[in-house]
Design brief:
By secondary structure, the chain is α+β, with helices and mostly antiparallel strands. The protein has helices at residues 34-48, 112-125, 210-213, 220-230, 238-252, 257-267, and strands at residues 77-78, 81-85, 97-98, 107-108, 136-151, 154-159, 163-170, 176-179, 189-190, 273-280, 286-293, 299-305, 312-319, 335-347.
């Protein structure tokens, strides 16, 4: 990856830019949710760079990043780390605390096929409920992000702290709502797949709806081939991008039952996948992880499962090798992004809470 390229595994982990008041966006679109972030960068790059410039993938399924268009400059996106530079306007990004860190666990290829097979069997025995037309997929999670922040000539590594995040998405992707105090205004904001003309954008792997996921093949070989084809030229490598794409679907969607099983069988076919015997999600739950190291960035993305029940817990991206970002301050053991899924359920109305989340 070039130094200016936004990494798919990591920069879902970026959070915070300058005040939304500085955003130059059309009326009613005060912030791009994460599913729009990489599209914006891709479009910006295509207009400013030669036609041969590599495409930049959107960090579509990771927790939402509010990106004021006028504030997002490719100049500050380097080596996969989004450095946030204050403009001096007095509108500083809120920061909850120091960088999130953890001990880096060892990864091994031993036992990976058996682990993924067990996870897929568990998923088959405990299928996700069907989401019906007119319903919404509600996902509640605990999330946290570590990132670089520059004020004047001083750069520090900070985090937004572990906090509650809630999303509602209609089955067709046309309607959605986000509540995340780290990135959205009080009470939340709209998230959807509707463009500025009011049209529903076609769903795809880079921006799926529940209805779209229900149309995907469940044959692992065919599904992996589709992922490679649709994400060609994105990410740091085809294998890393395929792993990221599957992880995105696991972390913040509710794949139909058959597809959910197939995703684990598909992941088993990606080279470089390892097992980490002890990983911790954003809620502090220990589990076993299916992981893959991005050789370019030195960051490892981990899908965390309960070590006994093999149910999905959450995801973590942790710096494993020295990299440093622009400032040289991103050290091994830095948790770039962490999540813990606490509720995943179908509800009948936007903003409705299931009894388990009330």
């Amino acid at each position: 990856m070039s130094q200016s390229r936004l990494m798919p595994d990591e920069w879902q982990e970026t959070a915070r830019l300058v005040s939304l008041e500085e955003a130059d966006l059309p009326a009613g679109r005060h912030a791009f949710h994460r599913e729009e972030l990489m599209n914006f960068i891709h479009q910006d790059t295509q207009s400013a760079a030669p036609a041969t410039a590599p495409a930049r993938r959107r960090g579509f399924m990771r927790p939402l990043i509010v990106i004021p268009a006028a504030a997002c400059s490719l100049a500050v996106i380097a080596a996969g780390v989004l450095t946030l530079t204050e403009s001096g306007s007095g509108n500083e990004s809120p920061v909850a605390g120091p960088a999130l860190t953890a001990q880096v666990g060892a990864g091994t290829t031993q036992g990976v096929p058996q682990l993924l097979n067990q996870i897929s069997l568990t998923a088959a025995k405990n299928p996700a409920p069907t989401v019906h037309s007119g319903q919404y997929v509600y996902i509640e999670s605990q999330v946290g992000t570590t990132y670089e922040k520059t004020v004047g000539d001083k750069t520090t590594v900070v985090s937004d702290g572990i906090h509650r995040r809630q999303t509602w998405r209609s089955t067709d992707g046309a309607k959605g709502w986000l509540i995340d105090p780290a990135v959205s205004p009080p009470g939340g904001e709209t998230i959807d797949h509707i463009n500025e003309k009011g049209e529903i954008e076609p769903a795809r792997l880079g921006g799926p709806s529940y209805n779209y996921l229900a149309t995907l093949t469940t044959d692992p070989d065919a599904l992996l081939a589709k992922i490679y084809k649709e994400t060609k030229g994105q990410g740091n490598s085809p294998d890393q991008q395929a792993f990221t794409t599957i992880g995105d679907l696991l972390n913040e969607s509710m794949p139909p039952a058959d597809l959910n099983v197939s995703l684990f069988k598909t992941a088993a076919k990606i080279p470089g996948v390892v097992q980490v015997k002890d990983a911790v999600d954003a809620a502090g739950r220990h589990g076993v992880a299916v992981a893959r190291l991005d050789e370019t960035s030195g960051a490892r993305t981990e899908w965390i499962f309960d070590a006994k029940s093999y149910t999905y817990l959450g995801e973590r991206t942790i710096q494993v090798r020295p990299h440093g970002g622009d400032s040289g301050k991103i050290k091994p053991g830095t948790i770039l992004y962490t999540s813990a899924i606490t509720v995943r359920q179908a509800v009948d109305e936007m903003k409705q809470l299931p009894s388990s989340a009330a």
